[in-house]
Amino acid sequence: MSPTASPPVDHAVLILVDLQPDFMPGGSLPVDGGHELVEPMGRLMREGPFQLQVATQDWHPPDHVSFASHHPDHAPMDVVRLHGRDQVLWPDHCVRGSEGAGLHPDLPWERVEAVIRKGTDPQVDSYSGFLNNWNADGHRPPTGLAGYLGERKVRRVFLCGLARDVCVRWTAEDASDAGFETYVLWDLTRSVDPAGDEALRTSLVDRGVRVLDDHRILLG
Ligand code: VGL
Ligand code: ZN
After folding, report:
1. How many domains does the chain have?
2. pLDDT in tens, 80-104
């Protein structure tokens, strides 16, 4: 479903997902076209309707379990079993405090009220801004973002950033499951694996996430 009317933006938050140099061309886990988002996203942050803006930041310790370098017999993009589930092994990326882990220097971060860092537990990955991936006890520990948004009286979540098929996807699913009316600004996202985009879109819509093709509908 792609609504053509502009969606309501009262009680809304814009969540900027993982806009970090490591996910841009030239970074250690580059997403094709990621850099193309910077200019329009800057405009949306400055000129868009969102009073409340929040960012997520992938923020891993140097020995993080999701890094292929931590698994001597494996290469990046291999899939292993971790805590009873599949885990993709990524190139080392977004090591806390490194330049590639920073918030992208060309975006107006002064507009953002809170930054949620995630992936900080050495033994657990975290794609979603709301919940970590599953830990050894089979739980997905919360980051606190749902509570924060609840206290800020947020009912609608608008998502953009990287990567469409990983962290944006997981954040959208968890936002929807947490009861927020959830929108993905599709043209302000890019995938690690664009071949899966059509299936991803269908899957999000089936879960009740609204996909907006063109964010400019929000710029009036
Ligand atoms: C991400 C892979 C690993 C993302 C983060 O931001 O989409 N992808 N860590
Ligand atoms: Zn990561």
Report:
1. 1
2. 999 999 999 999 999 999 999 999 9
